[in-house]
Each structure stands twice: as structure tokens, then as C-alpha cells.
Amino acid sequence: MTTDLGFDCSCCGRRHDELPLAYGAPAPAHWHDGLAGQPGFVLGEEQCVLDGEHFFVRGLLVLPMPDGEDFEWGVWVSLSKDSFTRVTELWDDPARVDEPPYFGWLSTELPGYEPTTLNLKTNLHSQPVGVRPLVELEPTGHPLAVEQRTGIDRARVQEIAELLLHPGR
């Protein structure tokens, strides 16, 4: 178990008191503030609809760490209209945990990954009511998919933290 959760930043030289283990995107990559309030465009805390034709659900992409903790990305997944309708129908139903996973496309561009994380194939696994669905990536050679399968170490988590703390460095 790690007792010192802080880190010395290689960008600014300062000591940061903690190493964040979770980040989240407030909206799918295709959303922008100019869409707010337009007919057919809705951005909620957990769901999003673009032009009444593109449907998104917020999920959690978990990367295991060697010390037993998890690093988490809050991401958006695009679903078909039928899948989105089903997710919405079961949103408050405890039986939703018995649903098979829904196929979708990752709709969040995560920093620090090449090539882009947009449009990676996913399976969205329903969780108990009140818990965000888990996002499982297709097991490809993409660096994010590899980290989900094999884990992410503290040095990589620090690299991500530095990238997000100091964008454009």
C-alpha cells in the first residue's frame, strides 16, 4: 500500500499533495456549448442526445493498478438508438444488472494516448441503479485497451496528472 500519495511534478517542480486516480469528461467529444438549448440536443449528467440522432451514456473505464487501487476515466459511449432506448427504459430498474452488455463506441478523446481514443469499440456493462456502467474496451493493441487489460503503473498515472495539470506544455 502506498503511504505517500503525493508526487513531485516534473513540469512545475512543485510537490502536489495527491496523485488523482480519476478524471472525467463532462460531455461527449461531439458536444459543444453552442448546442445547449437547441431542439433535439440534450446534455444531462449521465445521458446525452445530439440532434435526436446520436445517443450517449456516461460510463466508467477502469484501469487496474499494481497496488490494488484503480485508475478511472469517466467517459462517454455512443449507443445505437435501440440500445439507448433500452438503457433509458431500465435506468431505475434493479433488473438492469441482468442485461447483456451494449455495444458502443468510445466518444471521449482522452489526453496522452496515440492514436486517438475516439471510436474505440466498447461493451457497456450495466451496474446497480445509481452506479455508472462499466466500459470494457475491445482487446486490441491500442495503448488504452492494453492498460485496461494489463494495468497502469504509478509513473503513468503521474504522467497523465502532469499532462492534465499543465496542458500545452
Automatic annotation (TrEMBL):
Protein name as annotated: DUF2199 domain-containing protein
Record InterPro entries: DUF2199
Tree of life domain: Bacteria
Species for this entry: Amycolatopsis silviterrae
